[in-house]
Amino acid sequence: MREVLDPLLAGWHTGGAAALATVVRTFKSAPRPAGASMLVSEDGTVVGSLSGGCVEGAVYELGSQVIEDGRPVLVRYGISDDDAFSVGLTCGGILDVFVERVNRESFPELAAVQHDIAGSLPVGVATVIEHPDATWLGRHLIVRPHGFDGDVGSEHANRAISDDAQGLLAAGRNSTLTYGPDGERRGEGMRVFFNSYAPRPRMLVFGAIDFAAALARLAAFLGYRVTVCDARAVFATAARFPDADEVIVGWPHRYLAEQLAAGLVDNRTVLCVLTHDPKFDVPLLEVALRSEQFAYIGAMGSRRTHEDRLARLRDAGLDEAELDRLHSPIGLDLGSRTPEETAVSIAAEIIALQWGGSGEPLSGLVDRIHHDDQDESVPPLAAPAAPE
């Protein structure tokens, strides 16, 4: 929903309605992950994408129907001879898509959710997508670190969903949860999709050089909150790094230690050291490698610079397990020359590490393209609940 939130709210504030279609579960080689959204407005405007073009036409028609009759629908799209698979995905994947009408009456908490997202506060939305009682479908529970708002149908179900969603919210993960009709954990009949809106992951870039400017631009495009830090005030300026969320003048290792002590670094944070100057990067890496909070730690430099850096870090007392967490020389072997090409190389290594990619050309591989935890088994959809 994040990518369609602004136009969704625009109609919500004026009292209008829109159809919100969300990928709630994927199987095999689906093109987009759970949580991808598409919005169909009352005037026919479409924002967002669910599959890169495979099912959007069918979802548009379904969204127009949902706006008209207000009945939420859970539908499956994929390749099969079964009539239930009404639209084919050229990628061979399977998507479960939930389509609901959103207006002030159906989603009164939407403005509060947007407020939390804009303020980088963790918040998640649990939506009932399957239930034997049709009146439960499309109800929302807003989950925050210390409680919840809303009502999906019963207090027992509210508390069960909130308890289970807390861990997903902390990890920034989307998932489908299964319960009995009243929230029984061992039962079946109710499925709930939890969409987590954790704050943007951070990228900390140390070294105010031209490579850092290119990396900041690409990282912002990828959805990171970017900080550039350098001790040299003449280079660390907002004018030189317009795509960074903040530019810090200070000694890198001191700034990082302060961020860690304040709890402002988590296990989604990536750290890129581009200074290749031992007086800056050795104290910085000593702090970083002794922490287990980072998703990625990379350092720029030649192989000789890398070997010298390792020797200095060993002299500082770091062990081999800590040194093994360092990606250096930084990036994948793309033959990069320019700052922009180098930024792509660095981002490619981070993405490959995040999703388990090999970095090899896809044309030479026989394994599936996507390396995430998409389901291979495809359970049947429940029969649609009959409206009362």
Structure description:
With 388 residues, the chain is an alpha/beta fold. It has 10 helices and 16 strands. The strands form 3 sheets. It has a 6-stranded parallel beta sheet with strand order 13-12-11-14-15-16, sandwiched between helices. Strands 3-2-1-5-4 form a 5-stranded antiparallel beta sheet, sandwiched between helices. A 5-stranded antiparallel beta sheet has the order 8-7-6-10-9, with helices on both faces. Helix 5 (210-221) links the parallel strand 11 (202-206) and strand 12 (225-230). Helix 5 crosses helix 10 and helix 6 packs parallel to helix 7 (278-289). The chain starts with a helix and ends in a 33-residue tail after the last helix. The model is unreliable at 80-86 (pLDDT under 50).
Question: How is this structure best summarized?
Answer:
The protein has helices at residues 5-13, 56-69, 110-118, 155-171, 210-221, 252-261, 278-289, 303-315, 320-323, 339-355; strands at 18-27, 37-41, 46-48, 73-78, 94-102, 123-130, 140-144, 147-150, 175-179, 190-197, 202-206, 225-230, 246-249, 269-273, 294-299, 326-327.
